Amino acid sequence: MSRFSLTGRTALVTGGARGCGLAMAEGLAEAGANIAIFDMIEPEIVFADLATRYNVKTSFYRVDVTSCESLDEGFADFERDFGGALDICVPCAGVNKNVKLLDMTPEDFDRLCDVNIKGAYCTMQHAAKMMVKNRTTKGSIIIVASIAASRAVRGQYSSAYCATKGAVRAMCAPSAVELAEYGIRVNTISPGYIKTEMTAPFPHLLESWKSEVMNNRIGMPDDIKGACIFLASDASSYMTGNDIAVDGGVLNW
Ligand SMILES: NC(=O)c1ccc[n+]([C@@H]2O[C@H](COP(=O)([O-])OP(=O)(O)OC[C@H]3O[C@@H](n4cnc5c(N)ncnc54)[C@H](O)[C@@H]3O)[C@@H](O)[C@H]2O)c1
């Protein structure tokens, strides 16, 4: 199991204040990584315990991933506090908007693209530059995509959201090709239907989506942890430019 250990490594998770991002941050800490979180909201209380529970260093930075200035500042603060020792980056910050194609406003469309595409891309770019600079040979970037990259979300108006997650999937392989020479791997995780603040406003859908899942249950944020630890660690050292769907079998049923 030592190939799964992240002891001595440092991870940055955007959107890590709650939901899937927080669960992945917790999983990475449990595997031994120091954790930095970028988010626009204060992390849930559990984040404050990670440092003592897993004997790692943690820090939260208020960063808006849609703003170049905010990202610049966040990475500069991270570099100061963690000595630039970045090994793992999980661009997870994301938003959804349940609006019909015919009613979508340019402002709402821009917002989805800014957070889900530009935010993920610019976070990856910053992280890759820091990894090249610190010469880590263990670099791993894990972008959070979605099953929505390859199918419509049943019961929702998902044209714009699906477009953004398709873009996330599409940026993975070419980025992996370019970063391979620096020992940096790039993969995506595509969660299925997960119960978080993003999906909580739709209890009827959480119920009906179960029928699309092979094991007939909605996922919890903790269900994503294992794939994240695997992709962050040496256990996945031969895996890059690819995707892991953690979806209870939705995509294959
Ligand atoms: N919940 C699901 O069913 C599901 C399924 C597939 C993919 N996803 C993806 O998982 C990721 C996490 O979503 P979640 O379900 O945990 O939702 P969530 O709303 O609980 O978490 C999203 C986090 O992103 C943060 N965030 C939003 N905009 C930001 C910005 N501009 N800058 C910094 N942080 C920002 C939020 O504050 C929040 O902490 C998203 O990318 C989402 O698209 C979720």
Automatic annotation (TrEMBL):
Q: What are the record keywords, sorted?
A: Oxidoreductase
Database matches in InterPro entries: NAD(P)-bd_dom_sf (IPR036291), SDR_fam (IPR002347)
Q: Which domain of life is it from?
A: Eukaryota
Q: Which SUPFAM superfamilies match?
A: NAD(P)-binding Rossmann-fold domains (SSF51735)
Check the record and name the Pfam families matching this protein. adh_short_C2
Give the protein family: Belongs to the short-chain dehydrogenases/reductases (SDR) family.
**Record's protein name:** Lung carbonyl reductase
User: Which organism is this entry from?
Assistant: Aureobasidium pullulans
